[in-house]
# Entry
Amino acid sequence: MHGKDIPLDVVREIVSRVQHTRVVDYSPRDGVTCPVCGGRLRWGKMGVTHSLPWSGRVRERYHRCTLCGAQFKSVEEG
Ligand SMILES: [Zn+2]
# Structure
């Protein structure tokens, strides 16, 4: 046994989390489109769970779709 080896199931978990972080564009006018169910989420129904402050010209938001419950991230470019 090598003490530094990462268990395979841990590697799988990390990979699956990365793959499940979907990113969509955020529009101040049109809102966001859920990457899972394709639903158009507008103001007040975007399911924003967390908003990050502006970082340069980019702002990220975390969402939970109000239609299907999928979690994803949006990026707004100012
Ligand atoms: Zn959805």
Notes: The chain has a mean pLDDT of 89.
